[in-house]
Amino acid sequence: MNMKKHLLFVALFSLASWSGCILENQSSSLYVRITSPSDNSTVSESPVEIRGNVSSLITDVWVQENPAKLESGEFSAPAWLEPGKNVVSVKGWSRDGRTVSDSVVIYFHSSGNDADLDTESFEDALDSDGPEIRDGPEYETIEHEPFAGCEGTVRLEPKCSSLQGLTNQDLISKLRDMVSRGYKSLGYDTARSRMYQDIDLVDDKVQGVYTGQWIFTGGGMPDPKKMNCEHTWPQSKGASSEPAHSDLHHLFPTIPSANSARSNHEFGWVTDSDPAWAQGGSKLGFDSTGELVFEVRDPHKGDTARAIFYFSVRYDYHVSFKQESALREWHFLDPPDDYERARNDAIEVYQHNRNPFVDCPSLVCFIDDF
């Protein structure tokens, strides 16, 4: 089906409204489903160009998990669609990192069918109560459902009572201060020795987190041909220098082949029936959008998610929308167990900080975007 020339949707970015430590079913993520105004059928053409206008408050716009080109309040980015899955997510951030509550005009058109649309008439139709189209093509907006595990009323764990009432950037800033204050950087060699010889040592053996294989070390350093150290947040994407390079909260022992397979691929759900690599429940393959992703075996899914959430908060790195969505699911599918809590305790002895998402899993529900 060809893209109709005049496809325009008007939507609002809406901030979640929270009070105290109660989480309501709201989200700032916006989903727009693309339909044809002539017959209301779902458009399956791919890719399409997403264009729009934003106010001066917005300094960054992301379409799906990719940053959009932003110039003088106008943004554009391609979006790839699949039949039956034609959903595009759009987010905007302000200078202070908050998701902005602002009206955004979005146009959809194919590369060979540029639409020349009058944006002012549509922007003028917006009022304080939300979008209203006086004249023009039909539109549809679909609000984000509550994240899995955050439905209904969510209460903060007593251990994190000092964070009550904080959400989003305010909460992130407070957590960053908590995990940074008094932090002791060990250096990579010392961090690895602590990991292999104490923190992850069980009866003179160490387990590779991606495959579940146990390697006998006798309490010493393992043979690097049999086991090495995984940076859950890849070195090539921000973990190559200190203190991030040696931060034990995202370092884990792995079998070299599994570490190589993961490389620096983002985490996600592999839907490929014939993955490029698979061992012990972990696999490297394509997700539903055709992107190559690494899916961790079930017993380590939540550990991975909490390591990424920690790193994002500690070092101020953004997690892509698609990866964050998968990690939120993993966080609740595999909640912290006794081993992970004991690991958090052991790391605190050496590093003098803790992973708050292990101590208080519900914190994830009070942060809309990592």
What is the helix/strand order? Answer: EEEEEEEEEHEHHEEEEEHEEEHHHH
Mean pLDDT: 75
Sketch the major β-sheet: 5 strands, antiparallel
Q: Estimate the strand proportion.
A: 15-25%
- Structurally, the number of domains stands at 2
Q: Give the helix tally.
A: 8
Structural class, from secondary structure content?
A: alpha+beta
Q: Helix content range of the residues, please?
A: 10-25%
Rg, rounded, reads 23 Å
First-residue to last-residue Cα separation:
36 Å
Shape: globular
- Oligomeric state, counting identical vs distinct chains: single chain
- Contiguous uncertain segments of 5+ residues: 1-45, 100-145
Task: Note down, in words, how this protein is organized.
The chain has eight helices and 18 strands. It is of the alpha+beta class and 370 residues long. The chain folds into two domains: 7-143, Jelly Rolls (Sandwich); 158-366, no CATH class. The strands form five sheets. A five-stranded antiparallel β-sheet has the order 1-9-3-7-6. A five-stranded antiparallel β-sheet has the order 5-4-8-2-10, with no helix packed on it. It has a three-stranded antiparallel β-sheet with strand order 11-12-13. A hairpin with a 6-residue loop joins strand 12 and strand 13 (214-216). Helix 5 (298-315) crosses helix 6.
